[in-house]
Amino acid sequence: MTTGEKRGVSRRAFLATTGIAGVGLVLGFRLPGVRELVGWGGEAASPFGPNAWLSIMADGRVTIMVDEMEMGQGVMTAMPMIVAEELDVAWEAVSIEYGPLDPSSWPRGISTGGSTSTRTGWDPLRTVGAQAREMLKEAAAQQWEVSAAECTTRDGTVFHAASSREVGYGDLVELAATLPVPEEPPFKDPSEYRILGRRIPRVDTPAKVDGSKVFGYDLKVPGGRVAVLERSPVFGGTLTGYDGAGAEASPGVRSVVQISNGVAVVADDTWSALKGREQLSTEWDEGALASLSTESLDARLRELAEGEAAEARSDGNVAGALSGAAQRLEAEYQVPYLAHATMEPMNCTAWVKDDGTVEVWAPTQAATASQQTAAEAAGVAVDRVTIHSIPMGGGFGRRSHTDFVREAVEVSKAVGEPVKLMWTREDDMRGGQYRPTALHRFRAGLGSDGMPVAWEHRVVAPSIFYQFGPGALDRANGVDGDAVSGARQLPYEIPNVHVDYVRLDVEVPLWFWRSVGHSHNGFTTEAFIDELAHAAGADPMEYRARLLQDHARNLGALERVAEAANWGSTLPEGMARGIAVHESFGTFIGQVVEVSMDRGRLKVHKVYVAVDCGQTINPDTIEAQMDSNVAYGLSAALWGKLDFAKGRVVQSNFHDYNVVRMGDMPKVETHIIQSSERPGGIGEPGLPPFAGALTNAVFALTGKRIRQLPIGEQLADV
Amino acid sequence: MARFRLEVNGRRSEVDVAPETPLVWVLRDHLELTGTKFGCGISQCGACTVHVDGQPQRSCQLPVSTMEGKAITTIEGLAPGRLNALQQAWIAEEVPQCGYCQSGQLMSASALLDANADPSEEEIEVWMSGNICRCGTYNRIKRAIGRAVETDR
After folding, report:
1. What is the number of helices (H) and of strands (E) in chain A?
2. Could you tell me the pTM of the whole model?
3. ipTM, 2 decimals?
4. Are A496 and A455 in contact (CB under 8 A)?
5. According to DSSP H, which parts of A177-242 are helical?
């Protein structure tokens, strides 16, 4: 396996070795060949490219384009694995190209989020590989004057057993390129898989251990400047004036320019830009949020919880069932705003050129949206914008927003030079696009047997989708489908269920944060069902199992994790465990968390994970993502919280936005449930059940029910 | 601006920058050594870890004016032209996800093994606690350090 970065055949290799020596050189770099392929930036023409994702050279070399964006979740390896499997080539023969340069001419929109890469790529990428394989087989058959049905393939070679003949794919590409592309090629039977399901080493690992991996923050375009931006201290504020004289006089500063959302200081290097920004004086009309505080937000959430709500699900008659219940429970849960806090702060490099073209180097999850944003900001047609997608130093949803692209393009346009727009950690923490806060109110009724007869769940939260307009809400009834995701699909067999939603309108910019609505609905539903189990005097695992009899995959994940964790066995003195199960993004996850307390400090020892994500692509990546979701979920559960005071975000950096460090990290034992179901996502589904399993364990240990995240100091007196 | 003579990865060079410029920006912007990352700027995350005279330091906290006469090592100079046992272990354990923090993790881990050839799990956790990884690769980092210890044994 070779990546373009190492092999020296691709544009990326050029970027890596020259540090982007100039666009002419980059675009001028071509492979020999006869026809250009859509979306390959004019570089990868080849004798045989039955579709945009794949090219096969006469020497047998296979290049696969990855059009999902890499942020650590492993798509740069997983996507080509799917193509290579169906193509039937040796993994070692595959080269990888990353990121189509003109997303507007690519066959599908390029946007990576919602754990969709494998789910939506599964059929198209299998088809891509299978089409080419069938065409190559047909070419061999024609050459040998035999039937294609008599031919087989393996490791990049077509075989005809009856006549003991064989021929490599490379020798067939010229003829294959003249054949029609089969629309519905046959897929391999999973029993024949030679790549899928294997622990294939990630192709991007080597460059990540020697410092050679170039991230967006590291880019240097010759003649380029560095810019930092002074933004409104309050979301929605408007610039009323500024004095840039001090900044302009600061060493290394080239210019101070106003753009749509602030004032940029453009300098020769990063430190000069940062020092210059300190000398900048700006005045703002702080707008409607000038007095926003955490307390005012909380009060508003509680006020709204008493009012009208939009119905998201209604089965049976909850009110009637509640009034007739043998036992009634009520609980209120709450989660805060959260920042993504990727290790690499937001940044983007842009060059708006005199000839009306725009070059953008974006660490982005959303190349198509980046191209559109850049075109809009520069005032040019979309196809005038070239997007160099740069693998990201973390995404978690944050980098599917394109605010940083707009800023970079606006600054470059203003100064007429290539500009790397950089956010500091503080800019990043306070720059918006947060996971929304949410208040959850539950009521439940239990029958005389302790099993639930009614479940009522109200979610009060700002709406991510309402930011795109009222039309983005469900059927205009006012439900934000994301805010209730995982809540309205509650799998437990309860005869009367009512789920509704109340929108809090507050102009704090919101965005998709790892697992989005599932992040709070997974927590609250799995904690409240635990409350029901305890009220019923039942074992929390068995209680869930009884309610999941018609949900085989939920039940399967629950039972598998219980077995793995030896649920029901006695733990050492001072330890306890909690359990949760949740489906999201097509994947079913069961988790058991083991905890203890040491003088008010919660210690999370071990997390067992059972994951049913359908067909396994790369088990190593699945395990890595389960670790990752546990770490991300644990940071949020223990400490994650953004506060507001006088309209300003209080937290600013890792000293007051604490995240998990090595000593906090539990052992994670992942069990992959073998399945031939369609692949589900893996980048997010491990997070939603985690806080539930964790706080259920805390309850089992201490008797204290955590209903508000983060846990913070709530256990100090336990 | 002022001129400073630096020795980085065994190579001498001269930079003309403001005296208070943190080493991380001198390395990245002036010496083209971008393997050293910026993560927080306040010594909280460890992404910018380098070795100064063999000791792990946060380069975001080191004014360039204090760096003359010191031997600075960055990830690029950890094992030039090859991969050392730690880097090989990092690959064998498939440690990186996004990869952004890994230069700093490796520089800290390397300094750990220089100071303690056979650290306990708790010693690893304490030593490495200054390096944040948002992808949560901590368990694999621990395994990789253990693997490198075995290799060097």
Report:
1. 18, 28
2. 0.94
3. 0.98
4. yes
5. none
